[in-house]
Give the backbone structure.
Amino acid sequence: MAEKKSKCYSGIGGQAVLEGIMMKNKDKYAVAVRKPDGEIAVDVEEYTSDVKFEKARKIPFVRGIFNFVDSLVLGMKCLNYSASFYEEETDKPVNPKKEQLISTFVTILSVVLAVGLFIVLPYYISTLCKEYVRNDSLMAIIEGVVRLGIFLLYVVGISLMKDIRRLYSYHGAEHKCINCIERGRPLTVDDVMRSSRLHKRCGTSFIFFVMIVSIILFFFIRVNNPVQRVVLRILLLPVVAGISYEIISLAGKSDNILVKIISAPGMLIQRLTTKEPDASMVEVAIVAVEAVYDWRKFLNDNYGYEYTAGSEKDAEPVEDGEESGEEA
């Protein structure tokens, strides 16, 4: 019997899509979608990045930039795949090149809007206080607080939308599956439902770290010209993303008290970006996991637990916040 562990890093991650889940393990990913007729469609593929530089991808604080870009590209591709099951039927032939062009445009537009909303807008709002605040350090803190405020308002605002709430439930199902495996439990609907919907490697926590790291960097790196300040903030985004990636990676592999403390705010925000899924959503998430990951071997190698039908562990429900999580 292997040494008893409370949690073990699995290496898998994913995201919620329209009526489904994407799960990724190394270069292999699967998208499972609950179709309108109730069946589960699953598509398994190898992901090859359009951005090469293999040596740079292994350098700490640089690899995070490439992973962030890959996540955006793959995420958009998986969302398009899931949406295809719910588009109205049309006799018009599908043009793959045109779809790729539209997808690329939407991805770029999303990044531009995010930069405008979370980088440029907070800066200009903070400048409204310049007449009353003469201290540059305090101005940098005010800008950071405004940025966090806009982010929280955005999260709360979109969570009021019915479709987004359903997406958040699938997000919860994704986290529950990963937590279930990493806590050494078999990937059954009952065990997944008992697991936490919060995870330390979640994309929500990553965005929170981006906010915090940007506040710290912009506090120490300053220029006087207003236009140069905005440009500098945009140029520093890859640096911010690289640092945030290293923090989120450490959080997913460690359970010490310091990691728990720095992860706590992001976990708290996840209470807004994840919702409790129903059993049918968990079924979809399990299909996505099993398409790319041998969880039975993982349990045997790391917990000495050989799963056979009917040998499920007798586990108590886990309260939200006790588990860790993936970049979800």
